[in-house]
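Tokens for chain A. Residues wanted.
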């Protein structure tokens, strides 16, 4: 098939965060390259529309395409895995490629567990056209860099190669997106622009797939700003990376280019405090728009700073703030992190106390408190595996709720670990809800009243949870355990349990997984797609002989290569067990089954059962923000 007749659809997965407008940056970068080769590209943003896996599959059924690409953060892994399995059931011959941090650092393990044909484990612009063309035409891909795949049961990984010149590629294909929907999102201002790849640091909590920094030239960055401003009237920008102050002349040249072209854009850039110089601050102060700075802090305790592998020391942070103050550069803010193995509630409270003083002294806009997140290939993950806090990282990713669940490597117990952040989070949310109740800025009377009512309800629930948490934490240990489920709800933040197989719990049926080996099973056909998938997922995981489905009153005769036969012919399958969901079950059906196969055992399964953590916690950080 020639390139001009090939069609690819990129899918940005939906996440536990739900409806949220984040530009699928990697896809529009790949799309720009593919379009130059006359390959048709479409982007389906399941996250933007909050699409389930089944809704996404239904949309694909109505489209013509040759190949699918998907990517995602670790917190999207459940969607990626569920989608991949369902996609291959519906489109077994269509190639599925994947990229992103969830697969880059451990491709062999991921590829052995989900049916992805090829993983891109490096930058894709230089290989994407060749890869797509060869996969569609069923040609050899073994000489293409940055790939991993399984062939005939054997894992293969091709050499990794970095891109040295990002300027040679076209600017991202924003026109493929409905940009109004993204630009109207609360998190679109400032607009995040891809300004580089890689990091010179090797922080304790980070995966850092690219240890060398590669960036577009300063002129290219300004050209990117111009595109977004001229086409979409964007004026406020944020740099995507966290090393904008290194090398020091790069940001200076961007500022000089903005001055040269008389641009009045506003932008924010961040980096390590030890890279801040007067030359950088002076250049930022010279631009026509407003330039803001962010700095990396993480902790004020020198030992914990060292434990984070940060290259700056705590005593070097203040001089950078003094430089920005001298040149009137607003400081956006900084993070402090809880959860390093050496951290204690006392040391973190000391860091918080000092941070609040620094925020006040230097008029810093916000202070973010965060709990460490487990990223692939990080030292944090290696320590968690060593301590058996995580035994299977793929299972951990599947269990993720936003940035959780927590993994506690400190010396305090799990309740103590969560207590401090849980209380601060509840208090901070309460302040936010109270502000909206008193000073709602929604336009229109109806919207204003609605926001106040919703905030009042949320405030009531949060204060109730905070009160309950404080009471339960005062109880002796035996009573805490007695009210454990209530306490978990009050914490609103789960601890990861390595003793649970979360894929089995969340997407399979224990009734099937617990059957004796080599059992012969059939199931009464159900139109409920989620339950149908749970049956097939369980069969995929269990060592049993699945005979297919029987139906009572449908005309379906096959489901994903499994037969669906009339109920009266069930004796031809001769099953040991027959599974029936509660919504399909009635006494007449069971009576018919007993007459046809009297020796078979009926397994009745709750149609509505869903395994969930005892919380809906979506995030691990919050901010103290200055009133404007």
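Reply:
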């Amino acid at each position: 098939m020639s390139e001009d007749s090939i069609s690819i659809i990129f899918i940005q997965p939906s996440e536990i965060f739900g409806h949220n407008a984040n530009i699928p940056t990697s896809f529009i970068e790949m799309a720009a390259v593919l379009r130059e080769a006359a390959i048709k590209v479409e982007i389906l943003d399941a996250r933007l529309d909050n699409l389930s896996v089944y809704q996404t599959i239904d949309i694909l059924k109505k489209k013509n395409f040759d190949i699918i690409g998907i990517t995602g953060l670790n917190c999207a892994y459940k969607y990626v895995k569920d989608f991949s399995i369902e996609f291959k059931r519906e489109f077994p011959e269509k190639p599925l490629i994947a990229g992103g941090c969830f697969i880059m650092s451990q491709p062999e393990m991921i590829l052995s567990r989900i049916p992805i044909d090829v993983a891109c484990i490096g930058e894709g612009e230089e290989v994407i056209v060749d890869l797509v063309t060869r996969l569609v035409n069923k040609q050899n891909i073994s000489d293409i860099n940055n790939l991993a795949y399984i062939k005939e049961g054997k894992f293969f990984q091709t050499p990794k190669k970095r891109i040295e010149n990002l300027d040679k590629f076209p600017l991202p294909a924003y026109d493929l997106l409905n940009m109004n929907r993204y630009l109207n999102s609360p998190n679109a201002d400032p607009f995040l622009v891809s300004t580089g790849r890689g990091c010179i640091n090797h922080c304790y909590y980070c995966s850092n797939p690219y240890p060398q920094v590669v960036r577009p030239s300063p002129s290219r960055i300004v050209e990117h700003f111009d595109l977004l401003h001229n086409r979409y009237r964007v004026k406020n920008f944020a740099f995507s990376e966290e090393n904008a102050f290194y090398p020091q002349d790069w940001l200076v040249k961007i500022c000089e280019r903005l001055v040269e072209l008389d641009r009045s854009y506003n932008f924010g850039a961040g980096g390590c405090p030890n890279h801040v110089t007067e030359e950088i601050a002076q250049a930022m102060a010279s631009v026509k728009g407003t330039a803001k700075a962010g700095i990396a802090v993480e902790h004020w305790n020198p030992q914990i700073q060292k434990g984070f592998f940060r290259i700056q020391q705590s005593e070097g942070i203040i001089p950078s703030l003094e430089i920005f103050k001298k040149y009137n550069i607003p400081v956006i803010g900084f993070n402090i992190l809880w959860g390093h193995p050496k951290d204690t509630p006392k040391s973190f409270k000391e860091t918080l106390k000092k941070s609040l003083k620094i925020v006040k002294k230097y008029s810093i806009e916000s202070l973010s408190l965060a709990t460490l997140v487990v990223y692939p290939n990080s030292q944090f993950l290696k320590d968690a595996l060593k301590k058996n806090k995580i035994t299977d990282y793929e299972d951990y990713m599947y269990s993720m709720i936003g940035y959780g669940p927590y993994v506690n490597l400190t010396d305090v117990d799990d309740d103590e670990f969560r207590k401090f952040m849980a209380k601060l989070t509840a208090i901070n949310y309460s302040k936010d809800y109270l502000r909206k109740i008193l000073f709602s800025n929604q336009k229109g009377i109806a919207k204003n009243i609605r926001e106040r009512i919703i905030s009042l309800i949320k405030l009531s629930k949060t204060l109730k949870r905070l009160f309950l948490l404080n009471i339960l934490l005062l109880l002796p240990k035996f009573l805490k355990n007695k009210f454990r489920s209530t306490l978990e709800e009050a914490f609103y933040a789960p601890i990861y349990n390595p003793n649970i197989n979360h894929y089995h719990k969340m997407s399979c049926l224990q009734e099937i997984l617990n059957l004796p080996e080599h059992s012969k099973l059939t199931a009464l056909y159900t139109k409920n797609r989620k339950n149908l998938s749970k049956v097939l997922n369980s069969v995929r995981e269990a060592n049993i002989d699945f005979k297919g489905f029987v139906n009572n009153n449908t005309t379906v005769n096959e489901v994903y290569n499994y037969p669906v036969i009339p109920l009266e012919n069930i004796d031809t399958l001769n099953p040991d067990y027959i599974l029936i969901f509660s919504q399909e079950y009635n006494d007449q059906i069971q009576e018919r089954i007993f007459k046809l196969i009297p020796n078979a055992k009926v397994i009745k399964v709750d149609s509505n059962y869903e395994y969930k953590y005892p919380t809906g916690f979506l995030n691990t950080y919050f901010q103290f923000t200055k009133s404007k």
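Residues 445-473 form the longest helix (29 residues). The chain is about 40% helix and 15% strand.
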